[in-house]
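This part of the workshop introduces the protein records we will be handling. The question running through the whole workshop is how a given chain folds. To make this concrete, we reproduce a full record directly below:
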Amino acid sequence: MVRPRLLVVSMSLPVTAKRTGEEAWSFTMSPGGLVSALLGLKEFETKWIGWPGVDVHDAVGKKALSIALAEKGCIPVFLEEVCDQYYNGYCNNILWPIFHYLGTPPEYRNDGTITYQSQYDAYKKANRIFFDVVNEHYQEGDVVWCHDYHVMLLPQYLKEYNSKMKVGWFLHTPFPSSEMYKTLPSRSELLRSVLTADLVGFHTYDFARHFVNACMCILGTEATSEGVVDQGKFTSVEVFPIGIEPERFINTSKLSEVTEYMKKFKSDFGGRKLILGVDRLDTIKGIPHKYQAFEKFLEENEDWRGKVLLLQIAVPTRNGIGEYQKIKDQCHGVVGRINGRFGSISSVPIIHLDCSIHFHQLCALYAITDVLLVTSLRDGMNLVSSEFVACQKGEKGVLVLSEFAGAGQSLGAGALLVNPWNIKEVSNAIGEALIMSPEEKEKKHQINFQYVKTHSTQQWADDFMNKLNEVTSKAELETGKAPHELPQHDVVQQYSKSKNRLLILGFYGTLTKPNKNQERKDEGMNLELHPQLKERLKGLCSDPKTTVVVLSRSEKSVLDQNFGEHDMWLAAENGMFLRHTAGEWVTKMPENMNLEWIDGVKQVFKYFTERTPGSYFQASETSVVWNYQYADAEFGRAQAKDMLQHLWAGPTSNASVDVVQGRYSVEVHSVGVTKGSAMERILGEIVLQNKSITTPIDYVLCIGNFLGKDEDVYTFFEPELTKKTMSSPYYGSGPLKKVSSTLVDVKGDNYFSVAIGNTHTKASYFLDSSDDVVQLIHKLCTHNNP
């Protein structure tokens, strides 16, 4: 059986290349679980596409390198002249600082050729080069997995070329809050590109939430519990916390060589408690903060002086860059001061190493560490924490972990979580960890050890690929369900044959006049029925075989004003209130629904209405809607984005509500208030008030211009779901009652779900505008009155 191919695309290849001759190359495999996991996905033949780490300008060298890399399952991307402004410029000078909350750096003042725009141009060109290489090697059926912020434009390039290509994108760094991300000048282009991927993955829920919020605030997209809807296209957004290869660390810790290192290190440290730090020498790792907290601990705990050692392994990165030399010099200065204050002739409290160490030595240090101290200021995950947990033997040590590391959401239950900016808090945590009882340490260790064992890097890769396969398979099925233009002849023909018909009609955009090129209305949401429909609807409602329900988010008075003279059912505020026009309104609102948030939302909507000419808002009993269709479109969208920030930070922050952004509106309503969720209540009330019903509903026509969250009404009546026996308890306005008749029995050719002006829909059919609804209802009325 031929395995499908996986094309992994990242900035760097998993090997380091070194030229040893005109046509000769040698390679060193990069260590780490990520490489092993991606190359070890059993169900795929994996090819890795990336920059080889060296510039190769001659054709002979490129050809020889490509042939040599092919034997290792790798494909080189030659970036050449764009590499510096792409990698050192846009990626590491602009994106990386913003993603780690360091802000947008100023443009270079001493070099007019290096600007923000020149770096972004290099970024776009580099992503195009990546695309060219992927396209050259892509075969039908391949899966493409893009990694990290270096290739944020690649998903769009791939999907524009081949919309059927399966594309995933995963970010290995934090994704910042929308307030930070929006400072990026190219913010919209990058988000739009990432959203063309089928699946977008992050390490933590915070990062995923920040991404979704940025899409809503900057692009005006709609968010769901599973992802983002942008211009009718759904992108799944999921959380996949990466792990390590636990068996590699566990097995290495058992080696005799490691055991010897453990004995040697214990002897060298002279019985002192060991606090260990293992970090890249980087501004985000909080190494100076760690030293300041340790200094505070020594100041306040004189008894521990000379009895505890902080060993910091600071692995050099990005040598030659000024900012990294500054952090290195800062660390050296702080270490010198602390050692000068608290050291002696025979020992110093801090050992700082500007180098990496052998893997066996690292495992030995993990095994004997009493406290692992992680003080990252921002970190995508921080796998050092997991490595420490995997290597622990005998009496266990304690993990003191920054709450700003992604690992805090995975290993926090078995760690002491700290705010690294609070020096006193970290100092106290050091003290707590050093005196923690063996029983408590063992308990915390077991919690984290079970997590590390079961959440390996391999599991992370498997989870992502399984989800990507699930998402793309579902998308392929839905592609085959694209709506067709409504066959009006069939609608009328089946209508004429049926014995008990149900018509579910929306109001706004369905039974009103089309709003194209419409002038602003001072009456705001006081909608009016299409003038050509008044008499025709009356004719339709007069047929005893036909039940008509107008289902709208409008309030009761609006429906009364427009439909009070018709023999029909009215469902206001998405079915929260219901009445037949011959009776009184009854409440279908759940008894425990909390509406305390409404006043706060009204204040926010009032604030933005006063500052957005042409906008208006309407508050009903269960929802508030702000509409800006008559305002300047661009300004209205900008105001809507700011409004969402105000809502999330204020009245909806802890409320059980849905915030829904429409094309020209923002609506806030209680969770679960959708048209689909209201249908069973509506059907139940119809049966209660028409006890003489003996014939099941055998024809349903559902037409609306609904928001995405309301389109569940279309699937409610799908034939495979609708042979409904109403035998479950139904809560009406009075005491508990039961309805025990078969209410709906619709065959496939007798159900028509119709969306107005929208082809990205759950409905099976579409019409262009409400003018088409007028024509259809006219044809149905003609049948009733031939």
